[in-house]
Structure formats: structure tokens, C-alpha cells
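Severity: low
Component: inverse-folding endpoint
Summary: output formatting inconsistent between runs
Steps to reproduce: submit the following C-alpha cells with default settings.
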């Protein structure tokens, strides 16, 4: 008898959103590169680490925009996405990546350190004396948003408008999107595009010391950056800046609170902070999925033949818990030394913002650690956002150590 293995729940159910890991294990147990036609998005679902790496590094697997819009109903969304670095392939990808890397440099990121530290201090000041905070709203969200606004040269007061815009745009690119969400995403993209067109015109007239002005300068000096690419780059950096690092901070705090004995160790030994944050990225990866399309027939790991045109969904959060790669993969271990996670992707699309994300998350989590009680229960309310491609908390309300009053003596104040 031919036994057909079918996973027992869907990729957008509440159960999956709250805890995707049992389904990932189920899929991997069937095959690390698993074909499913009955999911809403038919294609290959990759849960094995080596297989994920092989696909991400192989240029025959091409990046592509999330929406295949034959109807022309989502013109703003698809036009902008078509001009984003993230969805480009060679040779345009290499050309655009070089142009953006020339201005989004390690030096530029390092120059953000003082404003990151100042913002963290201000945020701490605001939570002092409080017994309870929502980590997501009070701490994780404001930092990356203010920093990316500063980098791009977007006025700070736009922050909360950008929060909603970024959330709408992310949702419209996710598996969970409905027609209504796509319609909203289309309206939002038109608004965001108009906003950046205005800002770009302003900077063309009066340049400042920000990333938009530097990209305009490169255009004026004859680079091949088109106006549409410039605008799409601003939008991509805005979404990345508002969404992913926020999730890294939230998820790190969440993971540490779930493991009070390791949080205690971290409080006692601040030199563990870097390995702890890498483990948080592995354990609760902010980006859970990236998509590719095979541009020709390919064989993966010597066994799986993926045909030209087929869709491939690389589940980063699953690959990062593959027991073939990580010992006790489902256990959180802030002292883990082995194997790099692929939370920032791999290959030619490797995250351009990884150094900035690490810098911001380290400053935020380090500062918050002394206030996190290393005993349970601490979490008073938790809500996950309904997203398949991202591990994103909407709310993480926690009680603080003795209220957050006047914490002075801390090994984290270095
Ligand atoms: C913890 C935070 C972050 C995570 C987990 C993350 C994750 C990722 C991943 C997985 C990719 C690869 C996508 C693919 O292969 O299709 C990527 C690409 C990218 N990320 Fe991030 N990201 C983070 C923060 C940021 C930040 C702060 C920025 C900039 C403000 C940024 C900008 C980008 C850009 C521009 C790309 C496209 C690179 C390319 O296609 O060449 N990211 N990110």
C-alpha cells in the first residue's frame, strides 16, 4: 500500500503561528526538501540546513516578487517590489547591491552607535519606576525605527505612520495575505511611494548628510541607479528597519525569559552576550521563510529534482533547528559554539543590514537584561502576529525586576 504522508495542520493556522516548530519537524521527518501541492502555496518546503544552504547559494534558484499579479490590480506593489534589491537577480542584483553597499557601509553603521546608545538610554529612562512594560511597544519598536529614520533622513515624527505602513506592506507579502490585505497593501504602497518621491525631490534641492542624499549624489555622479530603484531602496530599508530588528529584540527577550537559568548566567557574565544573541537568532529566527523559483532543473543534495519554474520555500527557522546540523537543536543554549545559523540568509542575498541589526539588538537587550527577572512567570500577556514568513510578536507584556527603579550596579554598564 502506498502511504501518503500529510502534515496535520496548515501553515497559517493559529497553532502554527504560535509554535511553528512541531510542523517543521513533521515536514523534515517526511523529507528535508518536501513537495506539497495541497498547501495554499504549492511548492518545495525546505527544512534541512544543508539543503537550505545549497539552495540559497545556488544562483539557479532565483529570487522573485511575492505577488504574481496577472490582473494588474496591484500595480504599485509589484512595480516597487520589482525594483527592490531583495527581488532582483543577476546582473541587476550585483549592480544594485554594489551601489547600495557603497553608501550602507560598516563605517556608516558604526557612526550610528552614539545615537543607538542615546536612544536606548532614553527608552530606559521612560520605563524606570514601572512594574510592567510591553517590550514590543515600549522598547523593541522605537529603537530600530528611530535609527532607520535617522539613517534615511525621514523626520522622526513620521515614525508611527511608518510603523503601520511597514506592517501593512509586510502582511501583503506574507502567505497569510487575503484579498483585503492585498488591497490595503496596494493603497499603502501608493502612499509610501508618494511620500518618498516628495522626500527625494526635497533632498535633490537641498541635500543633507543622510543616505537618501548620498544615493542621489551617486546618481548625479553618473551611477546607474534609476529613480524607481532609489525609491524602492528607501522603501525596502524602511520595512527592514521597522520590522526585522524589532522582532530580533522581542524574540531575544522572549527566549531569555523562557530560560531563566540562562538569563541568570548572562546577568552574571556579560561576556556571553554575543553568543547569547546569536543563539536567540538561531532559536527564534525573525525571518522564517524566503522564497525562490528554479530557473532550470536542479538536483538538490543528490536526491531531490526540482524542475524549472517550481517554487521553493526555504524555512530558515526550521533549518536553524535541524538536528543534523545542531546538537540538541531544539534546546536553547547561550553558550552554543557550533555552526553558524542562517537567520540572515546566505549567498548573494545575505542580509545587508545584519551589522546594524546586531548593533541595535545588542545595545537594547544588554540594557534591558538587568531589569528582566530570572524567575518565572514574568510574561503577563503575549500575542504573535499572524505571519508565516516572520516570527513576530505583537505584544510581550512582562513584569520587571522590582519595578525598573534606579538600577545602577550592573555589569552591563560598561
Ligand atoms: C534581525 C534583523 C534582520 C533579519 C533577521 C534579516 C533577515 C534577512 C534575510 C533572511 C535576508 C535574505 C532574504 C533572501 O535571501 O531572500 C535579508 C536581506 C536583506 N536585508 Fe535583512 N534582516 C534583518 C535586518 C535588516 C536591517 C536592519 C536592514 C536594513 C535597514 C536589512 C536590509 C536587508 C536588505 C537590503 C536585504 C536584501 C539583500 C539582497 O537582496 O542582496 N535587514 N535580511
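Observed output (run 2 of 3):
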Amino acid at each position: 500500500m502506498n502511504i501518503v504522508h500529510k502534515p496535520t495542520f496548515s501553515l497559517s493556522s493559529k497553532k502554527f503561528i504560535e509554535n511553528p516548530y512541531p510542523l517543521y519537524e513533521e515536514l523534515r521527518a517526511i523529507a528535508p526538501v518536501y513537495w506539497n501541492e495541497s498547501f495554499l502555496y504549492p511548492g518545495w518546503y525546505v527544512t534541512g540546513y544543508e539543503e537550505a544552504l545549497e539552495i540559497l547559494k545556488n544562483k539557479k534558484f532565483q529570487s522573485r516578487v511575492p505577488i504574481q499579479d496577472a490582473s494588474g490590480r496591484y500595480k504599485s506593489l509589484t512595480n516597487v517590489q520589482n525594483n527592490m534589491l531583495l527581488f532582483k537577480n543577476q546582473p541587476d542584483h550585483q549592480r544594485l547591491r554594489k551601489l547600495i553597499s557603497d553608501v550602507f557601509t560598516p563605517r556608516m553603521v558604526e557612526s550610528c552607535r552614539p545615537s543607538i546608545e542615546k536612544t536606548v538610554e532614553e527608552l530606559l529612562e521612560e520605563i524606570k519606576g514601572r512594574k510592567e512594560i510591553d517590550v514590543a511597544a515600549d522598547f523593541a519598536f522605537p529603537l530600530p525605527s528611530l535609527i532607520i529614520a535617522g539613517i534615511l533622513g525621514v523626520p522622526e515624527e513620521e515614525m508611527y505612520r511608518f510603523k503601520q505602513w511597514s506592517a501593512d506592506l509586510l502582511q501583503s507579502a506574507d502567505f497569510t495575505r487575503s484579498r483585503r490585505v492585498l488591497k490595503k497593501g496596494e493603497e499603502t504602497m501608493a502612499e509610501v511611494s508618494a511620500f518618498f518621491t516628495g522626500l527625494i525631490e526635497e533632498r535633490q534641492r537641498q541635500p543633507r548628510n543622510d543616505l537618501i542624499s548620498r544615493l542621489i549624489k551617486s546618481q548625479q555622479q553618473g551611477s546607474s541607479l534609476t529613480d524607481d530603484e532609489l525609491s524602492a531602496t528607501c522603501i525596502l530599508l524602511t520595512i527592514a528597519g521597522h520590522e526585522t530588528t524589532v522582532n530580533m529584540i522581542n524574540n531575544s527577550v522572549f527566549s531569555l525569559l523562557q530560560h531563566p537559568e540562562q538569563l541568570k548566567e548572562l546577568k552574571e557574565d556579560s561576556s556571553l552576550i554575543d553568543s547569547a544573541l546569536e543563539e536567540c537568532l538561531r532559536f527564534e529566527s525573525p525571518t522564517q521563510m524566503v522564497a525562490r523559483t528554479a530557473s532550470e532543473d536542479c538536483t538538490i543534495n543528490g536526491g531531490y529534482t526540482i524542475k524549472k519554474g517550481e517554487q521553493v520555500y526555504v524555512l530558515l527557522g526550521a533549518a536553524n533547528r535541524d538536528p543534523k546540523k545542531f546538537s540538541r537543536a531544539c534546546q536553547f543554549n547561550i553558550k552554543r559554539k557550533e555552526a553558524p545559523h542562517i537567520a540572515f540568509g546566505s549567498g548573494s542575498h545575505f542580509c545587508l543590514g545584519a551589522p546594524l541589526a546586531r548593533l541595535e539588538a545588542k545595545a537594547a537587550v544588554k540594557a534591558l537584561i538587568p531589569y528582566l527577572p530570572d524567575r518565572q512567570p514574568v510574561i503577563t500577556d503575549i500575542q504573535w502576529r499572524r505571519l508565516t514568513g516572520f516570527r513576530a510578536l505583537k505584544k510581550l507584556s512582562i513584569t520587571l525586576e522590582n519595578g525598573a527603579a534606579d538600577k545602577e550596579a550592573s555589569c552591563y554598564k560598561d
